[in-house]
TrEMBL record:
This is phosphoenolpyruvate--protein phosphotransferase. It comes from the Bacteria. Its EC number is 2.7.3.9. GO terms for biological process: phosphoenolpyruvate-dependent sugar phosphotransferase system. Gene3D superfamilies: 3.30.450.40, Phosphoenolpyruvate-binding domains (3.20.20.60), Phosphohistidine domain (3.50.30.10), PtsI, HPr-binding domain (1.10.274.10). It comes from Geoalkalibacter ferrihydriticus DSM 17813. GO terms for cellular component: cytoplasm. Keywords: Cytoplasm, Kinase, Magnesium, Metal-binding, Phosphotransferase system, Sugar transport, Transferase, Transport. PROSITE patterns: PEP_ENZYMES_2. Residues 19-166 form the GAF domain. SUPFAM superfamilies: Enzyme I of the PEP:sugar phosphotransferase system HPr-binding (sub)domain, GAF domain-like, Phosphoenolpyruvate/pyruvate domain, Phosphohistidine domain. Its cofactor is Mg(2+).
Amino acid sequence: MFGITTLEDISTLILQSHDLDETLNNIVTLVARRMRTEVCSIYLLEDDELTLRLRATRGLSRRAVGKVAMKISEGLTGLAVEQSKVVSILEPQAHPRYRYFRETREERFHSFLGIPLFDRRRPIGVLAIQTLAPRQFSGEEISALSTIAFQVSSIVVNARLLDAIRQKEEQANRFVQELEQTRQSLRRQSNDDGNDDSPARNDYSALRGIPAYPGIAGGPANLLDERLGFTDIVDQGEVEPERERRLLEDALEKTRIQTLYLEKQVAARLSSDDAAIFHTHLMILEDRGFMQKLLAAIEQRRHSAAYALKTVVSDYVEAFGRMEDAYLRERAADMEDIGRRILANLRGQNQQPLQLKNPGILVARELLPSDMASLDAEKILGIVTEVGEKNSHAVIMAKSMGIPTIVGVKGVLKRVAPDENLILDGNSGTLYINPPPQVAEEFERLEADRQREVQRFDTYREQPARTADGQDIKLRANIGLIGDVAIALRNGADGVGLYRTEFPYMAHGDFPDREEQYRLYRRIVEDFDGRPVTIRTLDIGGDKALPYFAPPLEDNPFMGWRSVRVCLDHRDMFRTQIEAILMAGVQGPVRLLFPLISSMEDVRACKEVVGEARRHLRAAGLPFAEKMPLGVMIEVPAAVYLAERLAGEVDFFALGTNDLIQYLLAADRNNPLVAKYFDPLHPAVVGVLGQLAQTARNHRIGLCLCGEMATDPIHMALLLGLGVREFSMAAPFIPRTKAFLSRITLAQAEKIARAALTLGVGRQIREHIRKELAEQDILDF
Ligand code: PEP
Ligand code: MG
């Protein structure tokens, strides 16, 4: 009977297959036999996305394979693609879309079932079956076939992917050969001319990027290898290939098992669609080419298993990264993920934290929050990245650590060699490579000035945050890592306004259990010694991924399955975190915050989980805070619209302006191309913030603004005037903000806000505030 065994057989077929045609043939044979149909065929869509070609068949003439092709606007097979849904038809000849191909002799068949194949939502082909006798397929049969169609889709995608890598590799090899030939002929020429063949080297150069966090730093370059965790893996010279090979095979086997497990787990909890990513990983882990390259690096080049993995995975990542097709480019992240996991298994660990040998300037292509979570902050004097935007989470973390940072420095990895002397000017966004003594001296002078400025603000650390006319303002810290606690306390933060709990999750090799989370939260609550700590539940997705929980590939991750949406779909994990937070509430004043709320259903569902968590803890006899203020992040425009209603459900609002601005203005917070559209002083943003402050006042609930905009005194002046009295920010900004507050009165701020609300252009609002502050002699920050 058609059922689970067929599915298992197909899985085995897929796992063992490396050749697309052979696999497709095996699948059509198996399906036709198990379904007892005379025909099973697979058609794939060509690159033009308009033509379907027969790629494998059981029952139709073999000669038709590769020849029979039709437009998607033709035939019943085309109809399945065109409509993106299952087409099930009795007596197909009578259907207006029927098209006859002589090669296939299809006139004999009296029923047709076509199931479209998809790569995510993009159609890529059709699985079709036909029978001699008229037959109505049952819902169960159609659903089983749809599962097979899903599996077929994933092998097609993977096979194409591996093919693309092979082609790119061949291209790259050809290119290297050509380059070498050119080089040799140039050398011959210059020897003929009697020249020295080493070009003169200009040692000093400067590169420009986007300033992300101000400050100046100098030191040796610390190059970070592409987030693979391979930084400290070097070629060890002579190794024992047999031993390395065994180590590698063991690690690969473990990684395969873990991947299978991950796939099953995700498929059971979510859908097989979501689990598809792990199938891709499995295909790569099973790919003969991948294996051969690893073995060649060990056996022929005598590399250690780890070094072989480093070189092979980096080659793949690079090849993918260069691809034009956005989908294929995204595969680079999969390769990285696989590389990390194999490496972790090679080292017998779940997840190896990245190690930097000496303090220096970290130079990387891109930093993900998980890198920042695992790097030793003490050793990072400055950060330079090739890509990335200044609002990315990694940069937010760099800010909270107070590390001068420049992003978007094109070509930096090619221009900088390990340990080369660098000076990073985070104020102007310039990176100096091997600067001459005069430049170095100038920077020493600037650094001394900066230190003096820091000292000037130092006096404010211990002082209360108060306006010139005596209004107390709450300035709390945004924290993510445990190291942020000391920074927050040192900078005189009044507790924590936003604890981004995803960062400790990122630093782990697996989901931390309740006890682990509780210990961490308790420690933070105790360190703040009676000052409030707002703990936000897991906010992954968007640009924040967990190394062990790959989010599904999405066209629009910031609009997708992120944050509280992930949590509500993983209730056990969500409840576990809430339980740990409730338990930590026994140690001090904790507030519980839910991110990315976009409906009343969201907030009610979150409260339901809080109820479940309480019941669970009570039943287990564990102490927890019976009363804990609950809050929601207002960061989705829908929540702004629902603010009055939401205010009736919770104790406080947290204004997440980083996301709120991006969603309100449809301007990606990380995309430099639209940076000018991401304007915190856009009249729409100003209006919304004023309205939210009013709503919170009317309902007498708390309101804390925790987006990055609060760190700019121009914004702060306006926000005060709009009625915001509580802020949370990267702690190094707190002393400076206190200094600013001490010079402005509420009346001045309110005057600024009143005028701003009447202006219709962001630039005018900025100019107006600047002018007002300058006139009042407030702005010398
Ligand atoms: C925000 O969106 O403004 C916010 C504070 O949250 P995050 O930056 O973590 O998304
Ligand atoms: Mg946010």
